[in-house]
Every structure is written in C-alpha cells, then in structure tokens.
Amino acid sequence: MIKPEAMAAGHAGKILDLILSKGFKLVALKYTRLSEGEAGQFYEVHKERPFYGELVNYMASGPILAAILEKDDAVQDFRALIGATDPAEAAEGTIRKRFAESKAKNAVHGSDSDANAAIEGAFFFSTREQY
Ligand code: ADP
Ligand code: MG
User: Fold this and answer.
1) For a FRET experiment, which of 33, 38, 69, 96 has its CA 20 to 30 Å from that of 122?
2) Among candidate residues 76, 82, 74, the one with its CA nearest the CA of residue 99
3) What fold, for 4-129?
4) What distance in angstroms lies between residue 128's CA and the mean position of ligand 1's atoms?
5) What is the pLDDT along the chain (131 residues), one digit of tens a residue?
C-alpha cells in the first residue's frame, strides 16, 4: 500500500516508478479508501499495541493505493526497498527514507511474509482483479 500521507503529498507516481524499476511486477492495483472498520481489520495483528488507534485513524484518513507485487523473494526484497519502519532508521535510497514523514506516517506498507501477502492481497482484490 501507498499510505494516505504519501498519496496526499503526491508521491504515488515516484514510489510506483521506483518499485517497478526494481523488478517488481504488478499483479493488481487499486485506488481506494479504507473505512476505520476496514483499517482496523487490516491491522488486527497490532490490536494490542499502544499505537493501534492512531494507526487505524491514520490509515482511514485518506485514499491509498493498494497493489499486489510479484518477484522472486518479493517479501524480503520489498522490505529492503521500503526500509525500516522509522524513516530516521531507514537506509539511504529506501522509499521510507525518501518519502516517509514519521514512524507512524511512513509512506508505504509491505507484507511481512508470503502467507500474510496472500491474506492482504485477498483483502483488496478478487481473483478477477489479479493478472
Ligand atoms: P512495518 O510497517 O515496518 O511492518 P509494523 O508492522 O511494526 O511496521 O507496524 C505497522 C505500522 O504501524 C507501521 O508501518 C506504522 O505506520 C505504524 N507504527 C509502528 N510503530 C509505531 C509507533 N511506535 N508509533 C506510531 N505508529 C507506529
Ligand atoms: Mg508490519
């Protein structure tokens, strides 16, 4: 996902270009907006964390771009491309280093495992929307 603050700042094109230039293929793409209920469901694993309420609020605060990406070692390579959760700790050249505002408003989401990528992909896309 490209998160609401990065969308509002007009970074979507540059972020997508960077992702595609690193060899990720688009399987699905959607411009949409999460309700608070949907954002809460998407981030359910973080329910007990102190920042959960803030996270849900923020993720529902504006439209996002959701995508399914394909590549060998996609999860690992995408996590490397986006960088650490906190942009202050993200490596030079990573998406979060370049585009994130803060640890909370950190420009992009990336799945943390193949299993979660499948769950998160199905959250946004029907099979008819995946090619
Ligand atoms: P990542 O997105 O790097 O996988 P996490 O899964 O730990 O990071 O957290 C999910 C999202 O919750 C982060 O991308 C960020 O938007 C938000 N978040 C994480 N930690 C904090 C924090 N300490 N304070 C505020 N928001 C946070
Ligand atoms: Mg995570």
Assistant:
1) 96
2) 82
3) Alpha-Beta Plaits (3.30.70)
4) 31
5) 999 999 999 999 999 999 999 999 999 999 999 999 999 999 999 999 999 999 999 999 999 999 999 999 999 999 999 999 999 999 999 999 999 999 999 999 999 999 999 999 999 999 999 99
